[in-house]
């Protein structure tokens, strides 16, 4: 491990960014915590940052030699927004970049897949994290968590498809290694939990852990798209419903050893994470 240098964590108040910043500072690393409001983050230096405001970019990068990149949320063409910043980062002395992508998006694929493709040409030291769906989707402010609290229902078009759901804390633990290990990873990493679960399984575990009945309501692709379109732009709703359809076809039915290999401990199970989150909020 190396403790030299400063890491800029973009999205430092978000699901993976907050956990990455916390784990970095706990390990003694210098962190600059970037968010739109420069929200205070324990042990880190807060700095204002907005992907869409280039005037915030240079100051955020001052003295930084590595960066954790969380793409702008809901942006259909993140490469157009991110690549000018990444070129500036390289020019101002950033040596290592770690990008948060998704297990569903390969290098050169849509959206952040284009940023993934460009990263090795911009930085000598890099990694792309491609986590599966977050376990925290069922406990935080995500639509699934909201509908579980409101009416005890999870709605998907995934049918019997299974997903290697992963704890955001485990994603952060991998991010810390990718950012701080002496030897850069220079690869992409699919990150999953220790087991692939269907949404029926998820509903059963939530019911058992919380004591509150939760069911999985299976919708068609069209029903899911229309349900999501009540809260989201229709194009984005169609993309999300399409991801559910891909799960139904088996696209996310896999587990990897990435967490164990990089952190030296097993990935956390959904039941363990849910029990921890339930205790925290009880």
Explain how this protein is built:
The chain is of the alpha/beta class and 282 residues long. It has helices spanning 15-26, 57-61, 78-91, 112-122, 143-151, 168-180, 199-210, 221-229, 234-248, 258-263, 270-281; strands at residues 6-10, 30-35, 45-48, 66-69, 96-100, 125-131, 153-156, 162-163, 187-191, 197-198, 215-218. The longest helix is centred in the C-terminal third of the chain and has 15 residues, at 234-248.
State the main characteristics.
282 residues, two-stranded parallel sheet, 42% helix, single chain, alpha/beta
Query: Hey, roughly how much beta strand do the residues contain?
Result: 15-25%
Order of helices and strands: EHEEHEHEHEHEEHEEHEHHHH
Mean pLDDT: 95
The residue fraction in helices comes out at 40-55%
Gap between N and C termini: 37 Å
Query: What structural class do you assign from the helix and strand content?
Result: alpha/beta
> Rough shape?
globular
**Uncertain parts:** none
Major beta-sheet overview: 7 strands, parallel
User: How many β-strand runs?
Assistant: 11
Question: Helical stretch count?
Answer: 11
- Rounded radius of gyration (Å): 19 Å
Question: Order of strands across the biggest sheet?
Answer: 3-2-1-4-5-6-9
Quick synopsis:
Helix content is 42%, strand content 17%. It has helices spanning 15-26, 57-61, 78-91, 112-122, 143-151, 168-180, 199-210, 221-229, 234-248, 258-263, 270-281; strands at 6-10, 30-35, 45-48, 66-69, 96-100, 125-131, 153-156, 162-163, 187-191, 197-198, 215-218.
């Amino acid at each position: 491990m190396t403790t030299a240098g400063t890491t800029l964590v973009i999205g430092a108040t978000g699901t993976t960014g907050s956990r990455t910043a916390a784990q970095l500072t706990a390990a003694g690393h210098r962190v600059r915590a970037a968010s739109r409001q420069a929200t205070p983050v324990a042990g880190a230096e807060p700095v204002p940052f907005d992907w869409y405001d280039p005037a915030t970019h240079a100051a955020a990068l001052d003295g930084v030699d590595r960066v954790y990149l969380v793409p702008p949320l809901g942006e259909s063409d993140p490469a157009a927004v991110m690549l000018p910043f990444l070129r500036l980062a390289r020019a101002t002395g950033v040596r290592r970049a770690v990008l948060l992508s998704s297990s569903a998006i390969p290098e050169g694929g849509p959206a952040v897949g284009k940023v993934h493709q460009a990263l090795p040409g911009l930085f000598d030291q890099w990694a792309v994290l491609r986590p599966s769906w977050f376990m925290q989707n069922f406990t935080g402010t995500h639509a699934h968590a909201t509908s579980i609290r409101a009416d005890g229902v999870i709605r998907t078009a995934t049918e019997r498809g299974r997903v290697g759901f992963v704890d955001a804390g485990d994603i952060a633990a991998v991010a810390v290694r990718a950012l701080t290990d002496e030897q850069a990873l220079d690869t992409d990493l699919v990150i999953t939990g220790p087991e692939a679960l269907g949404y029926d399984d998820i509903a059963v575990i939530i019911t058992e852990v919380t004591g509150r009945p939760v069911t999985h309501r299976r919708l068609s692709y069209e029903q899911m798209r229309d349900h999501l379109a009540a809260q989201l732009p229709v194009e984005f709703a169609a993309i999300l419903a399409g991801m559910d359809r891909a799960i139904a076809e088996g696209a996310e039915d896999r587990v990897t050893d990435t967490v164990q290999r990089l952190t030296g401990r097993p990935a956390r199970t959904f039941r363990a994470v849910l029990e921890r989150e339930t205790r925290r909020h009880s």
